[in-house]
Amino acid sequence: MLLIGLTGGIATGKSSVSSIISSMNLPIIDADLLARQVVEPNKPAYNSILSTFGPSVLLPSGHIDRKKLASIVFNDPVARKKLNTATHPDIRREMLLLVLHHFLRLQRACVLDTPLLFEAGLHKFVHEKVVVYCPEQTQLARLIARDNLTPTEAQSRISSQMPIDQKRSLASILIDNSNSKEDTQKQVEQMVARTLPSKFRTVIVWSLLCVPAALLYGLVKGWETCSGLWARIRARDSIRGGGRVHMD
Ligand SMILES: CC(C)(COP(=O)(O)OP(=O)(O)OC[C@H]1O[C@@H](n2cnc3c(N)ncnc32)[C@H](O)[C@@H]1O)[C@@H](O)C(=O)NCCC(=O)NCCS
Ligand SMILES: Nc1ncnc2c1ncn2[C@@H]1O[C@H](COP(=O)(O)OP(=O)(O)OP(=O)(O)O)[C@@H](O)[C@H]1O
To answer: What are the boundaries of the signal sequence (predicted)?
Structure first.
């Protein structure tokens, strides 16, 4: 199975490209979505965020206040590193499980839609590094318009990632999303047609690797179940032990 790492800068157009790819029936693993799932209440990363940032980053519902957390971490590299440390191992584990799942289902390719592909070192594990590019001024304008940010807020988000020109230089395939959406669509279709392996090749690789992949899937899933149970026991004990919920 071909592993395609899809990345770019914030608001350069990854989601737009990933929805084009998805319409071609290729599976997409969305790191931003996984980042939301691993911080649901009482999951290990949730407890870790709470003990690092305190209860002021919670909404009255008990969920993480993402706006509040964003305003902290996009202005403070040390806080951002702490958030990455709390969330990235769990995001990586979920990604691995999904990759194995798609491999075992005999998919010909799988796309990892990951904004921090290079920053987090995940580019080492993919066959193709696809960078969705637009010039930084266009990126800034799109980010301000989409998220209703001030230019200063938008700039600090852009600066929290590797500069888009550097990502461009690390790409194995570049999708230039500076122009129309139709132009981008054409580039994506060409990219998929050029890189997708044949069904024959996919079946050969699958038959060689399906046993170790299934074993690895079972091990990672087992580990996930045990660590989830352990986090719930610890959260329950901390409620019983004086109401300092999740702060132990
Ligand atoms: C900071 C948080 C709370 C902001 O949440 P919010 O819902 O406002 O934004 P969302 O998650 O949709 O992210 C939007 C974009 O911000 C950028 N971004 C997100 N996290 C980071 C980060 N740690 N460093 C640099 N850029 C980031 C990405 O380009 C992403 O596509 C959230 O992004 C988060 O928990 N980030 C840490 C986990 C992470 O690294 N996620 C990125 C995928 S691995
Ligand atoms: N070719 C294009 N022309 C004009 N606007 C575009 C184009 N491609 C994307 N946009 C707009 O730019 C904004 C950012 O695009 P998108 O949300 O796809 O970026 P992203 O890289 O996924 O962002 P993030 O890193 O925050 O997840 C959106 O409002 C989108 O509609």
So the answer is: none
Domain limits, the chain: 2-240
Our answer on whether the CB atom of 146 is closer than 6 Å to any ligand 2 atom is: yes
Residue nearest ligand 1's atom 29 by CA = 10
CA nearest 103: which of 16, 35, 3? 3
Instruction: Say yes or no: domain 2-240 is CATH 3.40.50.300.
Output: yes
Q: Candidates 16, 19, 74, 149: which one to mutate for ligand 2, based on the most atoms within 8 Å of Cβ?
A: 16
If you measure from the C-alpha of residue 209 to the centroid of ligand 2, how many angstroms do you get, rounded to a whole number? 37
pLDDT digits (tens, 9 = 90+) for 178-224: 999 999 999 999 999 999 999 999 999 999 999 999 999 999 999 88
DSSP assigned state of 126: -
ipTM of the complex: 0.95
